[in-house]
From TrEMBL:
It comes from the Bacteria. GO terms for molecular function: DNA binding. Residues 5-65 form the HTH tetR-type domain. The keyword Transcription does not apply. Keywords: DNA-binding. This is TetR/AcrR family transcriptional regulator. It comes from Dorea phocaeensis.
Amino acid sequence: MNKAVTSKEEILEVSRSIAASKGITAVNMRTVASECGIALGSLYNYFTSKAELLSATVEAVWADIFPIDKISKDCENIIEYLKVLLESAEESKQHYPQFFSMHALSFAAGDKREGRKVMEEYFQKMKHQMLIFLENDKKTRAHIFTEQLSEKVYVDYIFTLFLSILFDERADRGAFLEFVKNYLY
């Protein structure tokens, strides 16, 4: 018999596993409780609603796809960081099929705000890391940033392009990296 799951982290591990094998839309209170080997009521001690469980699961999946702290240790500049993020996203498509297109749809209408908030918080962490790499990149041409086009504004634009590439299967990742390189160097 399976050992019953007894922590929030273990529940999220099971939820990520369900998202990987059946899709994010399969993550719900009953399925997670069953897979964890705990009573449905016990799951509510950890997550008060399906929306809370989904939000935590989406955040956990984003963290699994883009382990920011681990990725940042392997990079020296923003180009390397973006390349590793793109590679990580590509690898995750096999592990989490349709996650990029389906995670926003998995929230009920009233819960979309919470789902968006969780996603935005994780995206802010990613953008912050991009900004750090950009500010510390010694190869960047002098005087390319101005008051109007600051490093932060540039990162916002690059991140928007990055997201569009994640959601568009036909997007040319190499061209995106070349575009960033050509402006910076």
